[in-house]
Amino acid sequence: MEGYGSDFSAGGAGGKVDTGTIMEQVKVQIAVANAQELLQRMTDKCFKKCIGKPGSSLDNSEQKCIAMCMDRYMDAWNTVSRTYNSRLQKERARM
């Protein structure tokens, strides 16, 4: 377990923890996890919607369906994300 926490104290003087660095690392890890979850959900939903009988390749209609499904899913996710962030900013401004 040598070096297990070394990333967290690398920038601190005298072994002090740099909370700003830790917070940035946590934010990056959360963003990566969210992106992975988004991709997994989109893949699951579009596969179930577009692929009737799995085989060794996708036919033309399945390819189009997958592309359109993923585009719609991303558009919807972006709309929800923008609205959510806008509401968060309004709430923070009120405080």
Question: How would you describe this protein?
Answer:
This protein is an all-alpha fold and 95 residues long. It has a single domain, classed as Mitochondrial import inner membrane translocase subunit tim13 like domains (Helix Hairpins, Orthogonal Bundle). It contains three helices and no strands. It has helices spanning 6-9, 19-50, 60-94. The longest helix is centred in the last third of the chain and has 35 residues, at 60-94. Residues 1-6 and 8-12 have low confidence and may be disordered. Pfam families: zf-Tim10_DDP. GO terms for molecular function: metal ion binding.
Fourth-tier CATH superfamily name:
Mitochondrial import inner membrane translocase subunit tim13 like domains
SSE string, helices as H and strands as E: HHH
Number of domains: 1
Mean pLDDT: 87
| Beta-strand residue fraction | under 5%
Which tags fit this structure?
3 helices; mainly alpha; disordered N terminus
Explain briefly what this protein structure is.
The chain is mostly helical. The protein has helices spanning 6-9, 19-50, 60-94.
Topology:
Blueprint: H1 6-9, H2 19-50, H3 60-94
